[in-house]
Write a structure and sequence with these properties.
The complex is a heterodimer of chains A (159) and B (67).
Chain A: H1 2-11, E1 17-20, H2 23-29, E2 54-55, H3 61-71, E3 76-79, E4 85-89, H4 102-105, E5 107-108, E6 112-113, H5 119-129, E7 133-137, E8 143-148, H6 149-158
Parallel strand pairs in A: 2-3, 6-7
Antiparallel strand pairs in A: 3-4, 4-5, 7-8
Helix pairs in contact in A: 5-6
Chain B: E1 3-5, H1 7-15, E2 19-22, H2 26-31, E3 38-39, E4 59-62
Parallel strand pairs in B: 2-3, 2-4
The chains are: A alpha/beta (159), B alpha/beta (67).
């Protein structure tokens, strides 16, 4: 539709005319601002914790574990230099030998959600899947943070 | 010929004064739209409805996704 509209505007004498082909789905999934009725509905981005610890594939378990413990986290997200989420460390992964590279023990390709996902259905889904937390990335896979179910439940109760 | 732009281009163009036009039906526009966008549904886009646009400024059209 945006292409046909752009051509139509050109036919009416407007110039320059651009078409944002990825559209508002791309815009909102990137966590960019929204106007309209949905703007006031609670979304994942409203309760996400942005300070989740991260590490690289080549780090080793002991150094990452120490860093996470000191920061009070039981989970660490594995990212690349562009902050794209590649994996997750939690639970049994921490029991690996201290010099084990993260790549060998991480959970590959964890499920991620977008910042514009409505909070209520997301929390419902987390309850059904018994998920305590989910990873929030933008549409390019870049880490935004970790959303804890209890944070979402508390926020919905107050809403 | 209209030029395709990405998210970063849109942000840059809007900062320099470009007009954002959502061409979806009004109900979808009312639910959620980009900041500052105006709504002209594709089916209503003609010389009359386009009069609300500033012909001296660039225009960016968008809908939901790659439709």
């Amino acid at each position: 539709m945006s292409s046909r509209a752009a051509w139509r505007l050109e036919s009416l004498g407007f110039s320059p005319v651009y078409r944002y082909v990825a559209g508002k789905r791309d815009w909102f999934a990137f966590g960019l601002p929204m106007e309209g009725e949905f703007a006031s509905i609670l979304k994942a981005i409203d309760v996400v914790r942005r300070n989740v610890p991260t590490c690289y594939l080549t780090d080793n378990v002991s150094e990452v574990y120490k860093r996470c413990q000191e920061a009070g986290w039981q989970v660490c997200l594995v990212v690349n230099e562009a902050n794209i989420v590649l994996g997750r460390l939690r639970g049994d992964a921490w029991r690996a030998k201290p010099d084990t590279p993260i790549e060998a023990v991480m959970e590959n390709g964890p499920t991620t959600f977008r910042p514009d996902n409505f909070l209520e259905p997301l929390i419902k889904r987390m309850r059904e899947k018994k998920a305590g937390s989910v990873i929030i990335t933008n549409s390019d896979g870049v880490l935004i943070g970790l959303l804890y179910r209890k944070d979402g439940e508390e926020r919905l109760e107050r809403y | 010929m209209p030029k395709d732009v990405n998210r970063e281009d849109v942000q840059r163009l809007v900062l320099s004064g470009a007009q954002l036009i959502e061409v979806l039906p009004p109900e979808e526009y009312s639910e959620a739209h980009l900041p500052g966008a105006i709504n002209i549904h594709l089916k209503k886009l003609d010389a009359q409805t386009a009069k609300q646009l500033d012909s001296t400024l660039p225009i960016i059209t968008y809908c939901y996704d790659f439709q």
